[in-house]
Structures are given as structure tokens and as C-alpha cells.
């Protein structure tokens, strides 16, 4: 009887969490079966059918419809592979379940794509390959189609093998490959390509160093002091204020280019205002939360849970705003050439329907195929807790902001995964150093081995799975040339068939 009464009196939050559990179970089932493939195929069929009806009067309706379907396919692959950067750390830290992370990411990605995605489409559409450099005007839309097919296929393959790759680099490599084989080197912007290659090399290193530095700072200021709760009450509001200011800048500069055009002073003022508000709000909130906690690391980690969820949501919003261009940028270029210039018109035209295709495709790809890569990023590289996951997300935002200020286009995927590596390798170094120092004080004779080999008591512990490191780095190295080569092959096949 008491059990039934307790069941009837369950809190609303318990029921809501059960709903997320059901979502998680459903997405796990879908991702392990052909049902997910069926839903993805149905999405593309619906996109193609609606596009065919809307574009029936256009003489190039077939190519335009094919472009929209391929843009939807690309969006599915972006959702399946790229969104793991933002939600993987929160899932790996056990702050969000897989189901709640997928729902939150899908909502934020869709909102970012629809509300702020139109401003970044032109970079992919016209910034790398110029339509004016093609001897035959018909070759440019075929090149964009080939780029979409090649990039989507490569990202699909990377998702299957469990490697989080940069969708930006896949699209750029595909556009370069298609442009090179169809129009020659004259159609390419050499400076842009050099900048992209530099960013590919720099971004994981910067992300790793930034995350390791943030974790060492938190350990030094909070986790290794005498009174950790007092240190938390003093430093956490500063950290949260820094996070709010950083993510405000990230949101404006990466995800909302229309606000970015307002000028440096208004943007800086918004960031400082966000930092000040977050500091003022979090200071009493941290004090209240810390009042009932014990002075131990497990208690301190609870204080990082709310900002970790907020950080993951903001990164997802900015990712949706920025990376939706990877799916619909080539589509916009095709429409602009084949008589539908209204696709890029600020006041409407076909831009909103195409953004909807990109937003829905990213969200659906995440829900259907995302769990595999979310687990890879969040759980299978190194062990994360709320503090380390927070360092990963904040380091990702800071690194992308610094690169944007320097005019260096870098990959958020490479940066986030590099940050996870940085946290893991820093933990290895710090833990092994502490063990050696402790043994040096307690049993210095163990450090001396007559055969020159380390005794088992001080053997270095490995906290990063090296096999996953090699898989991911290998996928990074071949993304641009592989997608470019695929695009060249696809363009030759299309040009021959059409």
C-alpha cells in the first residue's frame, strides 16, 4: 500500500526524467536497427517530393530537387557525426543521459540553424570556388552537387567507423576537389586553402593546451587547497562569469554574424554585461549550494553541473547556426546559378525552406544516428567528470574565439576532441607525478631499480585510450584529400552522365 502511495506521489521531475529515459531507450533501439535507416530515407523522400512540387515550373527542377535532397542527406550526416562535440562531454560526465542530451541538442541545433544560420551560408557557397571562373556555367552546379555527395559519403563512412571528423573540412575538401577537376586551379582561392590547412594543424593542439590549463587552474585554485568549499565559494563565481562572457562572445561571433556586424564595442559590452550578471547571480547561488555539501571532490563536482548543461546548449546553438552552411551552402550556390537567386535574399525567397531542411536533417541525424559518436567523444577517449567536461567545453569556445579573432578558420570538432585529449593527458601527467612524489617520500628505495625497469608500483598509468587516438587522428589526416578525391570522381561521373 505504501509503495503504491509513493508511486502516486512521485514528483514531476521524476516523471520528466522517466520521459528522457524512454527517449534514450528509443534512440538506442533506433540506432541499432534498420529502423533508423528507414526514417532517414523517409525524410529524404519527403524533402524530394516537396521540392519537386515547389520547383515544378523551373526548367532545372530536377537538379534543384537533387540538390535539396543531397543537402538533406548532408545534414543527416552532420547531425550523426558533428554534434557529438557539444553533448559528448556532458554525457561522458554523467550530467545528462543520452536521451536528454539528444533532445537538448536537437532543439538547440534547430534553433541555431533557423534563427542565425542564414549569415554563414555564403562562405561555403561562394568563398572557396567562384562560379565566374568556370568556362561552362553548367559545370558549377555539377561541381557543387559532386561536393555534396562526396562530403556526405565521407562523413557517413567516418560515422560508421566511429571517428568524429570535421564536417567543415569534409565540405571544403569536396568543394576544392570538385572545383579543381572541373575548372582547374584558377577557380580556387589559395589563401583560403592555406588558412584552412593551418587551422587543421593548430586547432586540436590549442584546444588541448587550453583545456589542460583550465583543469590545472581549477585544481590549483579549488581542488587541492585546504578548505575546498571556501575556495569554491570564492572562485566559482569568477569562473562562471568568465564562462558567461566567453560564450556570449562565442554565440555572437560564431553563431550570429548579424550581431557581429554591430561593431567591436557593442559586442564587448554585451560580453562584459553577461559576465557581470553571471558573477552577481552565481555568487549567492554557489554559497547556498555549497552550504549543505561536504568538503570533498564529489560534492564540488555537483556545482559544475548547471553551467556544464548551459555550455553544451550554447555550443549546440552556435554549431547549428554555423555548420548548417556545410549542408545548404552548396545548395544555395546551385540555386543562385540555376535561376533561383531568391534563396539568398534577406527577406525570404527559398532561403527559409532550405534552412528548415538543414535544421531538421541535423536534428534527425542526431536523434537517429548520434549516440555512437556521442559515446565515442564522451566516454571512450578518457574518463570525464563535470569539472573536466566543463573545461573541455570552455576550452573549445575560447580556442574558437581566439582563432576567429586571428582570422584562422578552425574546426570545432578538432578543437573539442583535442580538448578531451588535453584533459586526459594532463590527468595522466598529474596523477603519475603525484604517485612518484608520494613514493619518493614514503619509499624512495622503490624508485631505484637495479635492472633499469620501473617497478609495478610506480609504472605509469594510462588514462587515454591510445587506439581511439590513432583512429581519430588518421580520420582527420585523410578527410580533406579523401573528400576531395571523392568529389572529383563524382563530378566526372555526373559530367559524363549529364
Automatic annotation (TrEMBL):
Q: What is the organism of origin for this protein?
A: Stappia indica
Which cellular components does GO assign to this protein?
A: membrane
Has keyword Membrane? Answer: yes
Q: How does it sit in the membrane?
A: Multi-pass membrane protein
Subcellular location per the Swiss-Prot or TrEMBL entry? Membrane
Q: What family, per the record? A: Belongs to the inorganic phosphate transporter (PiT) (TC 2.A.20) family.
Under the heading InterPro entries, the entry gives: Phos_transporter
What's the name of the protein? Answer: Phosphate transporter
**Any one Gene Ontology BP term:** phosphate ion transmembrane transport
Q: Chief location of this protein?
A: membrane
Q: Which Pfam families would you find in this protein's record? A: PHO4
- Any idea which GO molecular function terms this record carries? phosphate transmembrane transporter activity
Keyword annotations of the record: Membrane, Phosphate transport, Transmembrane, Transmembrane helix, Transport
Q: For this UniProt entry, which segments traverse the membrane?
A: 34-55, 61-80, 101-128, 140-163, 170-188, 194-215, 235-256, 262-282, 303-321, 350-369, 389-406, 412-429, 469-494
Amino acid at each position: 500500500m505504501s509503495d503504491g502511495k509513493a508511486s502516486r506521489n512521485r514528483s514531476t521531475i521524476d516523471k520528466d526524467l522517466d520521459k528522457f529515459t524512454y527517449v534514450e531507450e528509443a534512440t538506442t533501439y533506433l540506432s541499432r536497427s534498420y529502423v533508423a535507416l528507414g526514417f532517414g530515407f523517409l525524410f529524404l523522400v519527403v524533402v524530394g517530393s516537396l521540392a519537386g512540387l515547389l520547383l515544378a515550373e523551373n526548367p532545372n527542377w530536377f537538379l534543384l530537387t537533387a540538390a535539396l535532397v543531397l543537402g538533406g542527406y548532408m545534414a543527416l550526416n552532420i547531425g550523426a557525426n558533428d554534434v557529438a562535440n557539444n553533448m559528448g562531454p556532458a554525457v561522458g560526465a554523467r550530467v545528462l543521459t543520452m536521451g536528454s542530451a539528444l533532445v537538448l541538442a536537437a532543439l538547440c541545433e534547430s534553433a541555431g540553424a533557423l534563427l542565425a544560420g542564414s549569415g554563414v551560408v555564403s562562405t561555403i557557397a561562394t568563398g572557396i570556388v567562384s562560379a565566374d571562373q568556370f568556362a561552362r556555367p553548367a559545370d558549377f552546379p555539377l561541381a557543387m552537387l559532386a561536393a555534396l555527395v562526396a562530403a556526405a559519403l565521407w562523413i557517413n563512412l567516418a560515422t560508421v567507423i566511429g571517428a568524429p571528423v570535421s564536417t567543415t573540412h569534409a565540405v571544403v575538401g569536396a568543394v576544392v576537389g570538385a572545383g579543381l577537376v572541373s575548372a582547374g586551379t584558377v577557380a580556387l582561392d589559395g589563401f583560403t586553402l592555406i588558412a584552412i590547412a593551418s587551422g587543421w594543424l593548430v586547432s586540436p593542439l590549442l584546444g588541448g593546451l587550453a583545456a589542460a590549463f583550465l583543469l590545472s587552474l581549477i585544481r590549483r585554485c579549488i581542488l587541492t587547497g585546504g578548505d575546498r568549499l571556501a575556495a569554491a565559494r570564492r572562485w566559482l563565481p569568477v569562473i562562471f562569469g568568465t564562462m558567461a562572457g566567453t560564450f556570449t562572445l562565442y554565440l555572437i561571433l560564431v553563431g550570429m554574424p548579424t550581431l557581429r556586424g554591430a561593431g567591436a564595442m557593442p559586442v564587448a559590452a554585451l560580453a562584459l554585461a553577461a559576465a557581470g550578471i553571471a558573477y552577481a547571480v552565481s555568487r549567492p547561488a554557489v554559497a547556498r549550494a555549497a552550504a549543505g555539501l561536504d568538503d570533498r571532490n564529489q560534492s564540488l563536482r555537483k556545482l559544475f553541473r548547471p553551467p556544464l548543461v548551459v555550455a553544451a546548449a550554447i555550443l549546440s546553438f552556435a554549431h547549428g547556426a554555423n555548420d548548417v552552411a556545410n549542408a545548404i551552402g552548396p545548395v544555395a550556390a546551385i540555386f543562385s546559378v540555376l535561376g533561383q537567386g531568391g534563396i539568398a535574399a534577406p527577406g525570404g525567397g527559398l532561403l527559409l525552406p532550405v534552412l528548415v531542411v538543414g535544421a531538421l536533417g541535423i536534428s534527425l541525424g542526431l536523434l537517429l544516428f548520434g549516440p555512437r559518436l556521442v559515446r565515442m567523444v564522451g566516454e571512450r577517449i578518457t574518463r570525464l567528470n563535470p569539472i573536466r567536461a566543463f573545461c573541455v567545453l570552455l576550452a573549445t569556445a575560447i580556442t574558437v574565439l581566439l582563432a576567429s579573432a586571428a582570422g584562422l578558420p578552425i574546426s570545432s570538432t578538432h578543437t573539442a576532441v583535442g580538448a578531451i585529449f588535453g584533459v586526459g593527458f594532463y590527468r595522466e601527467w598529474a596523477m603519475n607525478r603525484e604517485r612518484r612524489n608520494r613514493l619518493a617520500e614514503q619509499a624512495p628505495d622503490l624508485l631505484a631499480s637495479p635492472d633499469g625497469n620501473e617497478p609495478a608500483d610506480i609504472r605509469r598509468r594510462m588514462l587515454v585510450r591510445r587506439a581511439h587516438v590513432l583512429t581519430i587522428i588518421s580520420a582527420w589526416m585523410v578527410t580533406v584529400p579523401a573528400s576531395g578525391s571523392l568529389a572529383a570522381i563524382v563530378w566526372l561521373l555526373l559530367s559524363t552522365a549529364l
